[in-house]
Amino acid sequence: MISVRLAVFTCLLVALVAPAPAQQDLRATLFAETDRALEQARVANAELLAPAAFARGTEAYVGAEADLERGRNIERIRSSLASATRAFREAGEAAEIANVTLAAVIKTRADAENANAATFAPELWAEAGESFDSAARRLETGDIRGARSRADEAEALFRDAELTAIKAQYLSQTRALLAEADQARVSRTAPRTYEKARSLLAEAERELNENRYDTDLPRSLAQQANYEARHAIYLAGLLDRLREQDQTLEDLILSYEQPLADISAAADKVAELDKGIEPVVAELVAYIEGLREQAAQAERDLTDTRARVGALEEEIRDLDQRLGGVSQERVALVQRLEAEARIREQFAAIENMFERGEARVSREGNRMVIRLVGLTFQSGQDVVRPAYRPLLEKLKRAADVFPRSQVTIEGHTDSY
pTM for the complete prediction? Predict the structure, then answer.
């Protein structure tokens, strides 16, 4: 019994002082089941939805890792891992329940997260997160009523955080511009443009309040408000400079007529402003519209030309294919005729090698048959006599005419 205990102790000692690869193997064996439970809990989002159980599992898991690194008792490590595994499994089960019970606030939290509420509304996001965490912890303890109450608080806070974040992203720049305009007292110098910017900003905010997810119109309104705010700041600065430079209204009008005269000159026209800018503007608009129509017509002509070129290219390809097919068929026919002519010539050459009394040459499909009618055996003999050697030489030359052909020799004798 003592020897058995000593052997077990020795094995444990070897495991604990084993080199790094062996230690890694030991860890993989010990932690395998717990790692699977941890992964399942993470997939279920248990860290968020079951924070208490997940924290217990994490604490036991970290303790087991520390004990393993310090070479402590294996049973102690296994005990910690068993606790971690149970906690992670409890967390996974609790997370599944939370996914149903807290479904509404989970979705609201996701919406706020997608709106970058943590960045643009950090205080509301943090407050909502605390309420959400409290709801999840109460649900873990079975306090469903308390969990739902805290979830309702979190849902309202997440919605506020989401809306605040959306407004910050779409309206903050406009608000900053209007604040700059207020500081410069633009409302006194350019009141109409300033009020237009404020009105557009208010309309954009109203649209976001009514439908925060349809951001196309609020974005457009905010962009217009940005422009009008910048416009108001520019006009106020311009008017202030005019007063500082002691310029008159005539100076202002002339300064604005000059760019119109420059544009007319670029269009080979003379800007006659004695009747105001409206006739000149109308003439330039008509000129530009004429250029645009010419450009559109040129584009249409180009499209038609490309279509015609494409059709011609297709026709050329079709003709090439047809002519190419005819050419290929003609080449194949010529090749067949030439092959037939060569075979006839070879047949005639072989036929002319033999005298009529020596052999009969005939053609049976792709086979050539040479019957040596002039070669006979003596009665009871199967030996070719020397007198037939010249005939056999002719037969060899005939076989050489078709060097790749297969030769079959057939014959009979009355020799037994």
Answer: 0.48
